[in-house]
Structures are given as structure tokens and as C-alpha cells.
Design goal:
The chain contains four helices and seven strands. A hairpin with a 6-residue loop joins strand 2 and strand 3. It is α+β, with helices and mostly antiparallel strands and 157 residues long. The radius of gyration is 15 Å and the shape is globular. Helix 3 runs antiparallel to helix 4.
Length: 157
């Protein structure tokens, strides 16, 4: 008899992957056609630091090894708290209805080709930041993409 899959931890990351000229990578969910998003994912353990969750999720979902590519992962010091969508509620323990999402930016040297995890995502595209924000299905993801110019400018000053 197989053991039940553990419940997801209601703490996650959102990683806006972008280039220096503010092109943003979006990936389309395999379980919901037309749901475009940045890299997201939940912590694997309660003590996993959010930055480690971000590095792990980027590698799992895009194949990008941040250190090997010379990418720069930045913690934007933003956290979104939101209601978990009803169709994903079953993934969490009974009574868990809200998730805390830590926002990161990842600047890559150029618009690289990701290697998607086919069970999670089926397609990818690079878009200018405004068009990427418009394409995101999640309001918190769209808002993070809209914040991109501010965070990139802050790193240049």
C-alpha cells in the first residue's frame, strides 16, 4: 500500500525570470491551458529558505542552473498572501485556505531556451514586461511583473 502524498506547505515562491532589457519568461501550465505564469513552487520543508526554494524551482521548471548561467537571483522582499484557488485546495491540509508567496527576480544574461518539466508546463515564451504582465493569469504574478522596472532600476543605482 502506498503512502498518501504529503500536503503542500502553504508557503511558496514566485520567480520573475527576465533579461537586462526586461524581456520576461512565461511558462504555460500543463494542467490548465492558457494559464501563463512565472516560475512558482512551494517549499519542500518548513525550514527550507525561500531563496533555496526559488533556486530549486527554477532548476526543476526551466532547467536553468542559476549559478552555472551567471544569473542573479534577488529577493524583492515582497510577500503576497492570497486565497488558494478552490481547484487546488485539495493539495493542502484541511483548513488551510491561504498561501504566502515570496517574490524573487532572476536576471539572466539573455533570453535562454528553457527545458520544461513536461508534467508541469507545456510551452514557454519571452515577452516584453508589459505584455508578460497582461498574459499572467494570476493577479499577484502580473503585479510582480509590473514591478520589474523598479527593481531592475534599483540594482543599477
Amino acid at each position: 500500500m502506498q503512502s498518501a502524498k504529503p500536503f503542500k506547505i502553504p508557503e511558496s515562491v514566485l520567480v520573475v525570470i527576465h533579461t537586462p532589457d526586461l524581456q520576461v519568461l512565461l511558462i504555460e501550465r500543463a494542467d490548465h491551458a492558457g494559464f501563463w505564469q512565472s516560475v512558482t513552487g512551494s517549499k519542500d520543508s518548513l525550514d527550507e529558505p525561500p531563496a533555496e526554494t526559488a533556486r530549486r524551482e527554477v532548476l526543476e521548471e526551466t532547467g536553468f542552473d542559476i549559478a552555472a548561467l551567471g544569473g542573479e537571483l534577488r529577493d524583492w522582499q515582497l510577500a503576497n498572501v492570497y486565497d488558494i484557488y478552490p481547484h487546488w485546495q485539495h493539495r493542502y491540509a484541511l483548513g488551510v485556505t491561504r498561501n504566502t508567496e515570496h517574490v524573487f527576480g532572476l536576471q539572466l544574461p539573455s533570453a535562454l531556451t528553457p527545458t520544461l518539466a513536461p508534467r508541469e508546463h507545456v510551452s514557454w515564451l519571452w515577452l516584453p514586461w508589459q505584455a508578460a504582465a497582461d498574459r499572467c493569469f494570476s493577479p499577484s504574478n502580473a503585479e510582480a511583473v509590473l514591478q520589474l522596472p523598479r527593481f531592475v532600476a534599483a540594482t543599477m543605482s
